[in-house]
Amino acid sequence: MTGPDDGRRGGLSRRRLLGALGVGTAGVLAGGAAGGALGRATADDAAGAPAPSPTDAVPFHGAHQAGIVTPAQDRLHFVALDVTTDSRDELVQLLRDWTAAARRMTAGQDAGEVGAVAGERYAPPDDTGEAIGLPPSGLTITVGFGPTLFTTADGVDRFGLAARRPAPLVELPAFPGDQLDPAISGGDLCLQACANDPQVAVHAVRNLVRIGAGVVSVRWSQLGFGRTSSTSTGQDTPRNLFGFKDGTANLKAENGSALDRFVWVGDDVEGTAAEWLRGGSYLVTRRIRMLVEPWDSSSLDEQQRTIGRTKGSGAPLGQRAEFDPVDFTTQVDGEFAVPETSHVFLAHPTNSGTAILRRGYSFVDGSDGLGRLDAGLFFIAFQRDPATGFVQVQRNLRLDAMNEYVRHTSSAVFACPPGVRDADDWWGRALFG
Amino acid sequence: MTGPDDGRRGGLSRRRLLGALGVGTAGVLAGGAAGGALGRATADDAAGAPAPSPTDAVPFHGAHQAGIVTPAQDRLHFVALDVTTDSRDELVQLLRDWTAAARRMTAGQDAGEVGAVAGERYAPPDDTGEAIGLPPSGLTITVGFGPTLFTTADGVDRFGLAARRPAPLVELPAFPGDQLDPAISGGDLCLQACANDPQVAVHAVRNLVRIGAGVVSVRWSQLGFGRTSSTSTGQDTPRNLFGFKDGTANLKAENGSALDRFVWVGDDVEGTAAEWLRGGSYLVTRRIRMLVEPWDSSSLDEQQRTIGRTKGSGAPLGQRAEFDPVDFTTQVDGEFAVPETSHVFLAHPTNSGTAILRRGYSFVDGSDGLGRLDAGLFFIAFQRDPATGFVQVQRNLRLDAMNEYVRHTSSAVFACPPGVRDADDWWGRALFG
C-alpha cells in the first residue's frame, strides 16, 4: 500500500502551506513550527485560561458565533431545516425569535419569558420543560444558511437574497466514493447545538424547531454522543470509533492567527456579496459511516499504517509522543514511517496545503438491517472558504487508505454569520438588514 | 375527558394491590404506606448507602445481574441480536466469551487480555480501543434471552432449549394502537449496556458484537441519551421529553421486599422449566415515539391533566410536593384532581394492581421525513412475569389520555438470567448446563 516514492508530494505541499502561512520550509522541518502552530498552542497560550466548568454558560454575544472555537462540548444535536414559507418577513421574524430564544437558553433559562410551567393555564407553555433544573451545560447554538436559502436549484430568488449569496457558498462537488442520501443532505438552514449534557442540546433544538412551526420544517437531524475533536489546547484528545485519538493536529482556539487565516471570513470580502459574512465561517458537515466490522478484523499494524499514528499514545509513526511533529521523511526498515497513503499524511496541513477546524462527533444510529451497527463520525468542519478548506483536504484524501473503511452518506454546507453583538442584534441582521 | 364516577376503579384496584402486598387498605389511605413502599424508600433505607461516583465500577458478580436495580446510569446502548449459527456449542462458547469480556469491561479493562494496542502486530487487537483511558463509568451489561432462542415461530427447537422455555416467556400480545416495526422488534438475545459515559456503553456493545461475529448478528440497536427513571432513592427524578418528571413512583433498589414480589423470579419456579431463571427477571422494551409537536401545542393544563402531575414540581395534581402520595379521591371544582384517564392514575400501582421497575431512556433518532424529530422514550421495564407486569399495566392504559401523544414502534421481551456468581460462572450456565 505504501513504499518509497521519490515524487512524494510532501515537499511540494509543504511549500504550498508554508507559503500560505508565511513560514519558511526550514522552520517546519527543523522544529515542526508550522505544524506546531496549527496543531498545538504553546504552554504559554493555555496558561492564562482557567478551564470553565462543564456546567457553566458560554457567552452568547461576541464578534464570532459561539460553537466554533468554543472548546468542543461533549454532546451534539444538529438539525438542518427547510424554509416552508414564501414570506421574507416571516423568515426574518423567525431569526429574531430564534436569536432571543438562543440567548436565553445558552444562559440556562427557558426558551421564552413565560417559561415551561407558568403563564396562562390554557395556553401552551413557551418552553417544553425537559431542561428545568439543568445548568447551562456549556450550551452553544450556532446558525448557518445553506445555498438553497439564496437561490433554489431552479434559480428562483426565494427571499430576495440571490445577489447577496457569497460566491463560495455553493453545493460541494461530488467526491469519488460518495454514497450520499439526499434526504439527509443539504438544507436551507442549520442549527448546531453543542452542550455537555445531551438533554440540554436536545432541548435547545427541540424548542427552536417548535418556535419555527409553520415557517421551517426539519429536513434531517443528527445526534452525536461524543466529541471526536479538541478545539482547545486545554482539552484531552478524544478517541473516535476507530479507537484512535482524533484531532491531535486540529486547529485550536488558541491559534489566533491561524484562525484568522483558515476559519474566519475576513476583511477581504468588503464590498462583495459576502460582506455580511465577515467574522463568520463556512460549516461543512459529512455523515461518515465507519465500517467497524472490517476495521475490527484488521491487524493493529494495518490500522496504524492506515491512520499514520500509533493507536496507544497517538504519536505519529516513527515518533514517541502524541504531539511530536509528524515527520514525513523518517524511514523505518526502508519504508517511510508515516505511509504516504495514511490519513495523517494526506490530511495533515503540511501535505493538504490547508487547515480546517474540525468539530465532529461519534454517532450510533441503530443498525443497518444487515446485521451491523450503523456507526460513524458526524464530521463537522469550519473554514474560511469551503473550496480551500474541506474540498481541498478531501480531494487530497483521494488515495487515503482509510477510504476502505468509511462511506460518506450525507453532506451539507452552510454559511454561518458572525456573532450576535448585543441584545439588539440578531442572527443574519447584516444579511437581511 | 374526566369526571366524577362512582365506580372509579381506584378502590377496587387498591384492594387488589394491597392484597398482593399484604397491606391493609387503611394503611394506604391514611399514610400512603403502600404507595410509599413502592415508590419511595424511607430516609432510613437510603441513609447507609454512600452515592458512588459516576466514574466508579459497578460489581459484575452477584445473585442478580447488574443493570436492573443498579441506580440508573445516564446513557444507554441496547442491542438485540439474532443467532446465526445452528451450533449449540458455538452459542455456549459465545456466552462464555461474552461473560469474560463483560467482566473485564465493567471493571474498566479492555475486552480481552491482549488489549487494544499490544500483542501481535499482524493480528487484530482484541479490544477496539475507543475506551482507552476512560474510567469504568458505572458500566453494566445485562444479557437477556428472547422467546425465539427457545423455539422458533415454526416450533423448531433450535438449540435443545424448548423444554426449558419458561411459560411466561412468550411474545407480548398486540395492544390497541401498536405501530410496531418487526425489523426493530424481537431478537434471540439482547445486551443492555448502561454507563455514565456513552462512549463506554457504545464500546461495550461494539466489542460484544465483534466477539459474536459469525455466531450472532445485530438485529436492531438503540441509543438512549438520557435516563428517564430513577431506580434508587438517592437519585433525582429526571424529566422525559414531555418535560415532566418521570418515574417518581418507580420501584427502587431500596424497596427490597417489593423487588422480590415484582421484579425477581423467585423460589416458586423450583422444579419448573423456569428454574434456571430463579434470581433473574423479565425485560420488556418498547420504543415509544413521542409526538412532541402536538404535545408542544397543547396547553399546560391539558399536559398536566394528561400526566396527572404538575409540570413544575412533579406533585400529583391536588398535592404539593413530588413525593406526596397520589390521592385518587380529592376533588377540585367538582372534578377529581387526578383525572381517571391520566397516565399517573392508570399506571399507578394502586390502580394497575401491579408494579414494574422502569429503566427507560430518551432518544432522538434523527427525523421522520415529515419535518419532525423522531424522538421519544425507549421504555425498559423489568418484572417477575410480563403477564402480571408490563402487559397488565399496558392493558390498564387503554384509556390513557397520553395515548394521543405516543406511538409504540418496537417491542421485545427477554428473560434475563440470574447474576454471574464468580469467575467460573457464565451467563446462562444454569440454562445450558
Automatic annotation (TrEMBL), chains A, B:
<dbReference type="InterPro" id="IPR011008">
    <property type="entry name" value="Dimeric_a/b-barrel"/>
</dbReference>
<dbReference type="Pfam" id="PF04261">
    <property type="entry name" value="Dyp_perox_N"/>
</dbReference>
<keyword id="KW-0479">Metal-binding</keyword>
<dbReference type="InterPro" id="IPR006314">
    <property type="entry name" value="Dyp_peroxidase"/>
</dbReference>
<dbReference type="Pfam" id="PF20628">
    <property type="entry name" value="Dyp_perox_C"/>
</dbReference>
<dbReference type="GO" id="GO:0004601">
    <property type="term" value="F:peroxidase activity"/>
</dbReference>
<dbReference type="GO" id="GO:0020037">
    <property type="term" value="F:heme binding"/>
</dbReference>
<feature type="region of interest" description="Disordered">
    <location>
        <begin position="39"/>
        <end position="61"/>
    </location>
</feature>
<feature type="domain" description="Dyp-type peroxidase N-terminal">
    <location>
        <begin position="65"/>
        <end position="225"/>
    </location>
</feature>
<keyword id="KW-0732">Signal</keyword>
<protein>
    <recommendedName>
        <fullName>Deferrochelatase</fullName>
        <ecNumber>1.11.1.-</ecNumber>
    </recommendedName>
</protein>
<dbReference type="InterPro" id="IPR006311">
    <property type="entry name" value="TAT_signal"/>
</dbReference>
<feature type="compositionally biased region" description="Low complexity">
    <location>
        <begin position="39"/>
        <end position="57"/>
    </location>
</feature>
<keyword id="KW-0408">Iron</keyword>
<dbReference type="InterPro" id="IPR048328">
    <property type="entry name" value="Dyp_perox_C"/>
</dbReference>
<comment type="similarity">
    <text>Belongs to the DyP-type peroxidase family.</text>
</comment>
<feature type="domain" description="Dyp-type peroxidase C-terminal">
    <location>
        <begin position="237"/>
        <end position="420"/>
    </location>
</feature>
<keyword id="KW-0456">Lyase</keyword>
<dbReference type="GO" id="GO:0004325">
    <property type="term" value="F:ferrochelatase activity"/>
</dbReference>
<keyword id="KW-0349">Heme</keyword>
<dbReference type="GO" id="GO:0005829">
    <property type="term" value="C:cytosol"/>
</dbReference>
<keyword id="KW-0560">Oxidoreductase</keyword>
<dbReference type="GO" id="GO:0030313">
    <property type="term" value="C:cell envelope"/>
</dbReference>
<dbReference type="InterPro" id="IPR048327">
    <property type="entry name" value="Dyp_perox_N"/>
</dbReference>
<keyword id="KW-0575">Peroxidase</keyword>
<dbReference type="GO" id="GO:0033212">
    <property type="term" value="P:iron import into cell"/>
</dbReference>
<dbReference type="InterPro" id="IPR006313">
    <property type="entry name" value="EfeB/EfeN"/>
</dbReference>
<comment type="function">
    <text>Involved in the recovery of exogenous heme iron. Extracts iron from heme while preserving the protoporphyrin ring intact.</text>
</comment>
<dbReference type="GO" id="GO:0046872">
    <property type="term" value="F:metal ion binding"/>
</dbReference>
